[in-house]
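Weekly modeling sync, notes
Attendees: S.R. (lead), two postdocs, one rotation student

Agenda item 3: backlog of single-chain predictions. S.R. asked that every request posted to the team notebook include the full sequence so nobody has to chase files. The rotation student volunteered to paste the first one in as an example of the format we agreed on. Action items at the bottom.

Example entry:
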Amino acid sequence: MFAGAIGVVGVVLAARAQAATLLVVPVVILIVFALRSGGFSSRRRVLGVGMGSVGAAILAVASLAILPTWPQWLSRPRSLSGARHRLWGDALTLWREHPVIGGGPGSFLEHSETARSAPHLYAAHSSVLQVAAELGGVGVVLFLAVLVAGAFVASQGDRARGLIGVAAWCALAVHSMIDHLYEFPIVCLLAGLVIGWAGSREVPGAAAASPPPRPGTESSSRDLA
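Predicted structure, as returned to the notebook:
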């Protein structure tokens, strides 16, 4: 269990972003809660809270992206910048132009002048908006299906591990709504390991004794004795 908890924190820290350090705090609190109490009483509650937080993050990003002007309090140092607002707006514009299948992989960089203005601005800095702009509504549906499937698989182990796995997976998803974390292979690799660890189950009878001898084997052994 301790090794799995270390892996969970590693998923969040592997993002190498400032927001990731903030997500470590609630994830660690949930890990401690799971280890001490055995987790929530219902897998449905775990899934509901986790995916609800992801849905709220998506709605928040969409609401901010359509604002005509960026709130001043979001432009403070170490916060969301106006450049990110322009990137989100460009992603929405490209999605409106190609609502079903998007503009195609790599089209956002060609479409957005802001994205071409600096090397670190090459992506939309929002996974869901990046997918929407380049892959359209079809891509968004598949992307959300992957998020739901990951949370579901993580919840299938015992309750403590399920809580930890769902919390880590959904924390990564929430962070990814305002960033572009899934394009880093190490993040996806660690996330997959955590989901597999959290959703694993013990196979009934795996530790059972060796199979019984075939008919005639026991009598032959006695004759030899």
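Discussion: group reviewed the output briefly. Residues 97 and 103 are 8 Å apart (CA to CA).
Action items: rotation student to repeat for the remaining queue; S.R. to check formatting next week.
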